[in-house]
Structures are given as C-alpha cells and as structure tokens.
Amino acid sequence: MRNLFLLFIMISGLAANAQYKGYKAVADINAFKASFTAASKKITSIKSDFVQEKTLSLLSEKIVSRGKFWFRKENLVRMEYQHPFSYLMIINGNNVYIKDGQKENKVSTKSNKLFQKINRLTVDCVQGTVFSNPDFTVKAFENGQQYLVEMIPVGKGLSEFFSRILVTVDRKDFSVANINMMEQGGDNTLIIFQQKEINVSIADAVFAHK
Amino acid sequence: MRSLLISSLTLLLAGCGSAYKSLQPSAGDPFCIQAFRPAFTAELYKARVEVVGKNLSGLLLIKTMEDSTRRVVFSTETGVKFFDFEFGQQGVFRKHFVMKRLNKKMVVDALRNDFDLVMMNGIGEEAGQVARREGNWYYGYERGKKIAWYQTDANCSELLHAELGSKRKKLVEAKLFSAAAGPWRKGTVLAPDSVFIQHHNFNFNISLKKLDR
Question: Is the confidence metric ipTM above 0.85 for this complex?
Fold first, then answer.
C-alpha cells in the first residue's frame, strides 16, 4: 500500500513537471504545428519594442534593458539595445554585424557552429519555424490566449547555456509575445516584445551596415 | 659597431632590471590604503575586453551579498553568461559558472587576480611594505608569490593606480576613476565610475564603465 502511494506521488510529480501553470498540453500537436507554420508563413515582418530581463536568481538581481526589434523575412533581424546601454546587432543571412559604441565587428556564422545555432534559434523563434529546428526537442502547451512552446536543447553546444527555452505565442496572430531562456543554475533571460506591428513595411536600410 | 653592441646590451640589461628596484623603503602610514577601498552594492558596468587582438563586450555586475561576499557576473548584452565568480573574506574564491571556452586555469586566475586587485580583496589592513619613488608612495601587500602594490600621491589623498607585480616585473595595472573620470580620492565610499585593467605580460585589457540602471 505504501509503495503504491509512493508510486502515485512519483507519477504525480512527473506529470506536474511536464506542465506549466495555467497551460495544458496541446492535444493535437500535428494540427498545432500545421496552424503555427501556416500562420507564421503569413508573417513577413515584425517591428517591435522589447524589454529584456535577466534574472540572477541566487543574487536576487534583475538586469533590465530595453530597445527596438525589427524582423523581415527570410532572415533579417535588427536588435537595437537603447537603455541602459547602446548595442546594435544585425543578422543578415549568415552574417552578424555588431556595433558596440565605436567598435564594429562582423562575424560569419559559417565559421562558428555555436553562433550558427544561436542565429538560427533567433530567426526560428520569430519566424515560427521552431518545430523544424534539429537542435531542440519541442513540445507545445496552450491556454485561452496563448501557446507555450517548450524547446529543450539536444546537443552539447546550446545546452551549456540553456536548459530550455520557452517561447510564448499569441493565439490571435501566432506572433511571439516573449522568449524565456532558462539556464541550468536557475537564472533566466526573458525578452518581452511590446507594441508589435506585424507585416509593416521595413526599409532595407534598417538591416544595412557598413 | 662596438658602441652599438654595447648600447644594445645596456638597453637589454636595463630592460631586465626590476621594476621595483628603485623603490625606497620608507616609514609611511601602512594603513593609508584603507581609505581607498571601493564600496560596491550592486553596480552594473558595460564591459569591454580586448584579448590577443579580439574584442568582447558585455555587462558586468558586481554585487555585495548579505554575508559580505561579492559576486562578479559577466554576461553578453543578450544575456548569455560568461562567468559568475564569488569573492569571499580572506581571499576565498569560488567559481559558480564559467563558460567552457573560458574555463582554463590561466584565464580564471588572471580574472580572479584582476578583480581581487580592483576590489582590494584578500589584503590585510596594514601594508607589509611601504616605499617611496619620485614623490609618490607605494603600499605593498603580499599575495602568494606576488605583491599587490597601491600607489598614492605624496599626501595619501589620491590613489594613482594599483598594480600586481612579481618580484621583478609589473604584471597588471588597474586604475579606478570616480564620476567624470575624476581621480580616486581618499574616503570615496562609492563604487568606481570606471575601471581600466591592463596586463603587461600578455595582450589582455578590460575597461568598465558604470551604467545608470
């Protein structure tokens, strides 16, 4: 009887670990993938503000930064941190351009596998192609307003930095509401997208660099 | 030709001379440096690191915990963590996290020494050596086989710089500045506004600028 009780507790614990508060597992994952992919195909551009909150759990410390975000299909991303520091990152295909104060740096992701994975992750998150990313096992959960996509890294490279990544997607337009990158030690980085404008015209100059 | 050889040898020998040979032991106040200890609460710095010709940038947090230990956490602007170190009392040091690529003894020791030097960790209140050179005072604290030297002006009112040296060579130099790149004056019970760390034995420099959060 006691063993049965222990087994029940263990099974309940496992079930609880697989869920997120306020969400239930998506019943028909294939239907969700199809809708997600179809809806994402309709998103050609995103313009948004963002707030990034890095929480250092053991230090009870939160580092908050803010900026602007632009995305245009297929793989153009501009992320511009404006407060409390200036930092610009432009992803243009396989090239990443970084401007930090007066210092400028160009990196080709072809020469760096980890950078390549992070590059793909960024584009996949905003473009809705996370399910086809081979670097993660992906599950989906839902409530009335949002979907929660859980991405667990399978390879060595990304798992050094993230234990899992949670992407919250708005049900109404399948656009990304926030990305939460969780680390092994309990710290996390949450990027919240605000004032989103979907499918607005974004000039080439936004993604251009010297 | 002969004189060229002699002058070259002279220069070479001068180069091999000790950086600290000309220090004159003097009877100054061995407690002078206590008034220059920076006080960190939870400061966030924009950090720029130059290492063997490559540039890295990120955010560096220095936080004093309730138990008086200090945590130094360095991450990229986008939130990816490079390292998380703990500096305790009496020189206690603990690695909470180091990115695999950086987790090499030489790198970790260099970073530990740099932050110990800037935060004035692991040094007693009384300097083991007090010396003068060209009107300035040098206060030396033994740190294993090395010595952490803190140099002040003649009145012990301004910290000119800190350096970590072997018996013969200057290895690392650190400068602390208050707001608007002002000198680090006696009794500044604040965290520095900016910090510059320069290694003399290899190309590795760190600059920190405090951010208004």
Answer: no
- Residues of chain B contacting residue A112, judged by C-beta atoms under 8 Å apart: none
> Would residue B10 count as lying in a domain?
no
Contact between B61 and B83 (Cβ < 8 Å): no
- The predicted structure's pLDDT at residue A175: 86
Residue A8 lies in a domain: no
The predicted pLDDT at position B5 comes to 46
Q: How many angstroms separate the CA of residue A45 from the nearest CA in chain B?
A: 21
pLDDT at A173: 84
Q: Is residue B13 part of a domain?
A: no
Q: What are phi and psi of A71, to 5 degrees?
A: -135, 140
Q: What is the pTM of this model?
A: 0.86
Q: Is residue B26 part of a domain?
A: yes
Residue B70 touches chain A, beta carbons under 8 Å: no
> Distance from A161 to chain B by nearest Cα, in Å?
7
The pLDDT value recorded for residue A29 is 86
Residue A4 lies in a domain: no
Q: How many domains does chain B have?
A: 1
Identify whether A168 is part of a domain.
yes
Contact B44 A63 (CB under 8 A): yes
Domain of A169 in residue numbering reads as 22-199
